Amino acid sequence: MNTTIYQIYPRSFYDSNGDGIGDLQGIIQKLDYIKSLGFETIWISPFYASPQADFGYDVADYYSIAPEYGTMQDAEKLINEVHHRQMKIVFDMVMNHTSDQHHWFLESKQNKTNTKADWYIWRDKPNNWKSIVGPKAWHYCETRKQYYFASFLPFQPDLNYRNPAVKKAMFDVCRFWLQKGVDGFRLDIFNCIYKDKDFKNNPFSILHAFPSEDYPGGNFQIRKYSVNQDENFEFAQELRQVVDAFQPPRLLIGEVFGKHDLKKKYLGNNNGLHLIFLFEMLFYKFKPSFFQKKIMEFNQHYAAPFMPTTVFSNHDQFRSIRRIGNSLEKAKILATLQFTLRGVPTVYAGEEIGMTNGTISIKNGKDPITKPYSWVPQFIANLLPVAINRDNCRTPMQWNTHKNAGFSTANETWLPVNKDIENRNVEQQVNNETSLLHVFKRLIKLRNENEILSNGSIELVKTNHQQILAFTRTLHNEQLMVLLNFSKVNISNQLNVPIKAVLFSIKGKSIFNGVLEGYDAVILKI
Ligand code: NOJ
């Protein structure tokens, strides 16, 4: 499975009706823009009916659309308009939990005998399992006089997939959208779906005090019994069967965490999820050695028929451009990597113009996960590698230099627009051939025209300088070499292979004489 993905956080993309909140009509109006960049697939964060306590990741009705985003007709139109432009659309499917306002939960919490009594995870006494964000996972319900379990926030109760009726209900939701033509699903915290049936306590671990990239949560425990249960991997295959009943083929891409061996189990024997997000690139070090290591690791774990993913930013973490001091020059190197490495590139809206993070304090955060962390001093929050106020990566898209960066005509937008819109807006970059946006465009075009960049194998090439990253891509009897200069100075890197053509250079060079300019990268046909 191979594609290029553009992620939209609908609340922040484009507001068509001036209420300060992005919406589906807004996305429809910008489809030509996405098409002009060259992306094949659009993934949209949830816009189903929801109290928006976690901005859509708390679904109250999977069969209707939140009014601030539009109507069912808008959703259908969006699907059709995407297809009309020969693109694909992937919805976000939040299966692990619902909103506590979903009618399933409202009924379930009434007593122990109602028809939905067993649809969520209820216990008389909590065990020691912790939530991913903030310590408490078990929450007492006065009406039912029991505790319910929530992997994420208290208002997101986990469904009980050991009840076949729940599984059927959720598969029916998927079928409903697949029938409407949706091309697949991004699966929210898919590693949490099943929990140990005996509710065994998780082991204590001093080493797991803090959240880490392959281990969100922390809280001094190994989440041995509350995530990544064997039943999850089987569930991935059952879901695959659900989507495989539809033509043309659909895509399943999972949000899962853990070591590669574990994550890979979600892919099954190529009969589970098609792809999983590999979040380690969100925390990259801007050094060839970091990427050399990742290339080897991904080759080892995701050899064909599997495919890795290349993700530098999303709606949950700091925009990773902050790791390179918000440099547009370095961002061009990352873009080149993203579209030349073996793996499905997933670009978070705004990344193509080098949007930076907002400066919204924890105190003013709208993001519900800030609450448990309200005691953390702001300067510490700014230093943390993981975001505890996700508002800052969710600020409105910067379209131009007009009011609200062209995102909305409202007097107030749901989150404030960033200050640095001068050079980081779509209009300015579309009109500037040397912009980051143009680098993205040229790269995606090249990738669309050369199958070798999607499906070719990848091999590291030794270089004579530690600031140069070099690798080849090979397919059938064709070969490309990619060379990237991670430093600002020119570096000589003579090749002992004949060069047939220069397909791309960030700086627009059409010949390669063995010297790579500072922050230039080239794609050579050899
Ligand atoms: C992961 C999503 O990406 C995040 O935005 C959301 O808050 C949680 N899952 C809970 O659904």
Explain what the structure shows:
The protein has 526 residues and is of the alpha/beta class. The chain has 13 helices and 20 strands. The strands form five sheets. An eight-stranded parallel beta sheet has the order 11-10-9-5-2-1-13-12, with helices on one face. It has a five-stranded antiparallel beta sheet with strand order 14-15-16-20-18. The protein has a three-stranded antiparallel beta sheet with strand order 6-8-7, with no helix packed on it. Strand 12, helix 9 and strand 13 form a beta-alpha-beta unit. The longest helix has 16 residues. The radius of gyration is 23 Å and the shape is globular. The mean pLDDT is 96. The site of 1-deoxynojirimycin (NOJ) has 9 residues, from loops. 1-deoxynojirimycin binds next to loops.
